[in-house]
């Protein structure tokens, strides 16, 4: 048997043989990294650029943490829609549960330290009412929190 035949035989053993279909189109939303602090704000971006970092070349260079207004706007948009049984859409929000504790944990001689999201945001960050906005969407049945990981590091 040639290589392709062996590959197909192996795939056939592990792939599902039963599938299901829906009688109407579905829209699936996938959303990761809720709660992950990236760049703090425009001022932080400019400070890093002034220190010599070449920011703005890669998508993650512009990564920042959502605001309460962002979360409430998303909840509002999703809350205006219903399925055939009257239920709103549900967005599974995959949360990162800890951010780097940069002022206290960044040196070459030790392991990085992390700040649990439940204890707040890293130093210098301000996102008033963000956690309240998460909770409101959860209570409305629009957001469903899930674990994405402890951190991205």
Question: Secondary-structure blueprint of this entry?
Answer:
Layout: H1 3-14, E1 31-34, H2 42-50, H3 68-79, E2 91-96, E3 98-100, H4 102-105, E4 114-116, H5 130-139, E5 143-149
Parallel strand pairs: 1-2, 2-5
Antiparallel strand pairs: 3-4
What does this structure look like?
The N and C termini lie far apart (44 Å). Helix 3 (68-79) packs parallel to helix 5. The longest helix has 12 residues, at 3-14. This protein has 153 residues and is an alpha/beta fold. It has helices at 3-14, 42-50, 68-79, 102-105, 130-139, and strands spanning 31-34, 91-96, 98-100, 114-116, 143-149. The strands form two sheets. It has a three-stranded parallel sheet, with helices on one face. The protein contains five helices and five strands, in the order αβααββαβαβ.
> What percentage of amino acids are in beta strands?
15-25%
Largest sheet: 3 strands, parallel
The overall pLDDT, averaged over residues, is: 80
Q: Number of helix segments?
A: 5
The multimeric state of the shown protein is single chain
**Poorly predicted ranges:** none
Helical/strand content category: alpha/beta
- C-alpha end-to-end distance: 44 Å
| Overall spatial form | extended
Number of strands: 5
Radius of gyration: 21 Å
User: In which range does the helix fraction lie?
Assistant: 25-40%
Q: Give the SSE string.
A: HEHHEEHEHE
Spatial strand order of the main sheet = 1-2-5
């Amino acid at each position: 048997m040639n290589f392709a035949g062996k590959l197909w035989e192996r795939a056939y053993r592990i792939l599902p043989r039963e599938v299901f279909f829906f009688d109407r189109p579905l829209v699936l939303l996938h959303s990761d990294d809720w709660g992950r602090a990236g760049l703090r704000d425009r001022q932080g971006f400019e400070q890093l650029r002034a220190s010599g970092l070449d920011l703005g070349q890669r998508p993650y260079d512009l990564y920042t943490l959502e605001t309460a207004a962002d979360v409430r706007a998303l909840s509002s948009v999703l809350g205006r829609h219903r399925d055939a049984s009257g239920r709103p859409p549900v967005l599974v929000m995959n949360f990162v549960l800890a951010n780097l504790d940069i002022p206290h944990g960044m040196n070459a001689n030790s392991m990085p330290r992390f700040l649990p999201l439940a204890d707040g945001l890293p130093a210098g960050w301000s996102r008033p009412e963000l956690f309240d906005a998460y909770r409101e969407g959860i209570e409305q049945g629009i957001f469903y929190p899930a674990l994405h990981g402890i951190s991205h590091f």
